[in-house]
Amino acid sequence: MKKIILSIAVLTTGIWTQAQLQNPDFEQTENSLPSAWKIEPNDLYLVKTDDVVKYSGKNSLQISNTADASASMQTFSQMLPIQGSGFRKVRLSGYVRSENITGSIALYAYVKNGEKITIDQGNSETQNHKITANKDWKEYSLEFVVDDNAKNFLFGGFLSGNGKVWFDDFSVSEVPFSEKIASKEALTYIDEFKNIIKKNSIFKDKINWSSLENHLQIISKGMETVDDTALAIQYIMKNLKQAGDNHSFIDSKESFDKKSTSNPTAIEPESQLLDQNIGYVMVPPFSSLNKEMGSSFAGKIQSMIRKLDTDYPIKGWIVDLRTNMGGNMHPMIAGLGPLTGEGVLGYFVDSKKKTPWKYANGTCGAIIVLNPYVLQNPKAKIAVLMGSRTASSGEATAISFIGKDNVKTFGQPSAGYTSANRGFKLSDGRNLLLAVSYEMDRTGKEYKEKIQPDISVAPSEKANTDAEVAAATQWIKE
């Protein structure tokens, strides 16, 4: 018989603890769903308890797609208190079985402080415990280093894409740190990662390096390979986040290689004529690092601007960045070059210097638009739309307009990722995208938080009504 009070483990300090995870084996049900678990509604999936396929006991939790869900995800989770005190390691585990998977499966967890703010997070992939699809039952786990600031876990799993997956026998326990000396390979990799941040991060002076390094000595015990170092790397990233960095992240080798040869976001820019004389251009995120693809993307945007400007008597422009969550800023800015104008558009700034980014004759960074377009009326009003999904390079694109006399921004505050990330290739093929500078507009205003729009406009709650576009149109016609 399974236990609801799970996984009692002894720490190196000799303290015993219990982790309260309710209905960990999905035995208790309400309307064919497991009680105590939050199931996010998604019409593309069927979620139920299964009394035929299970690891043990009476039930498992089954998730399967009911329609094409290749671009969707079904999650489930539970919030539970973190027991114990002091600096310690906690393991969260579950058994997984799957078939006909064409997407991905993962366990995931968020660590919350007393205000329910996320202070750490991880999933099967980021912790190098990727769940193998289309296999029989196997236990998978996540590990976190926590202290007295950690009060709750949000723990669960998900199916991304199509297929069928079963989850069973979840558990949470404290586990002792190893006493075995780490290998040279593991320590070298941890030092490599730590030193990149110590030298280059704009938040490096806000980290208590003495405390961090002392804790790393404890965490790294028993680690033998680079893959084993995931918990130590995650702990470094956690300290970086606590120092104020919400932008840096690690990109897998597979993801980096994909960006080098394709555009994973694969969303095309859009344009249309509004109200007979207003040119509308929507610039989506663009994540490819491929120069040719970036130049093609920028060329499409300029072609849209050219067609609107030559076919119609354009009085003003609306640049829509509300869904632009970032990626590679240079193709976006090169494409919008006819609207931003030439010259210095903004700066990257750190404690030692400021470096400008520019647009000139179709070029921004390594991106080049052949036969670049020049507006017939460079003084025409430009309304830039932004919101909470305008992030990272989307924000840098917005900043490229700020400070022009003929520009106003409309909408809601941006996401607040107004730092520039520089890529550092790690010895295992992954890339650390590290925030190394803040951003500054052409007037010298520095951005360390969200960009506040000139005109605040709440999104419309009515279907077929766009409040931000309406407000921008009214301003242009004034």
Automatic annotation (TrEMBL):
InterPro entries cross-referenced by the UniProt entry: ClpP/crotonase-like_dom_sf, Tail-specific_protease
This protein's name: S41 family peptidase
Domain Tail specific protease as annotated: residue spans: 253-458
Pfam families: Peptidase_S41
